[in-house]
Amino acid sequence: MSPALEAVLAKAGLQVTPDEFLSLVADAAKKLAPPHPDPASYFPPDQRDALEDVGLDLSPHRITDDQGRARTVVAHAVLRDSALTVAEAARQLGVDTSRIRHRLGVGRLVGWKDRGSWRLPAWQFAGAGVLPGLEAVLAAVPPDQPALVVAGFMTTEQQDLVVDGAPTTPREWLLAGGEPRRVAALAEQLGTPA
Fold first, then answer.
1. What tens digit of pLDDT does each residue of 103-114 get?
2. For residues 81 and 87, is the Cβ–Cβ distance under 8 A?
3. Which domain of life does the protein's organism represent (predicted)?
4. Model pTM above 0.90
């Protein structure tokens, strides 16, 4: 495999081989880049708006769009690769795996099923704990919003959240000691028309 790809993966801190990463990209491409020429038609308007709000390009396919679609596929693959399993999350938090499954069930952690196993996006963890204010933010997320939309929201700069004079992501805002209610108010709007 290409030494250049190995170097990029190492620099990004991704713990996968180039072959594993390319397999993740291929899986993401199958999920996010269907052959249908108008992917927006697959979703009702509220879900379409939520997906577009977090950066997914659902416009009809044009040859000139391939670069943007490639970025979306890679972003999905990186999100999936960086997500924790239930066992990894339990080790990080110092709890039993049943506690992680319970937290997923009551909405105190967010995740998605991938080939029958839970995957928990890494954005919700900080050190040996969870992100400060996480429970308040997740309680505000509309129940119809998929975990991948929530992950996109939490890792995308928001103009309403400013740290040191610059817009920041909800995750960075909370890590900097920002008020969770501000993030929760934004999270309530996921899936609603802008």
1. 999 999 999 888
2. no
3. Bacteria
4. no
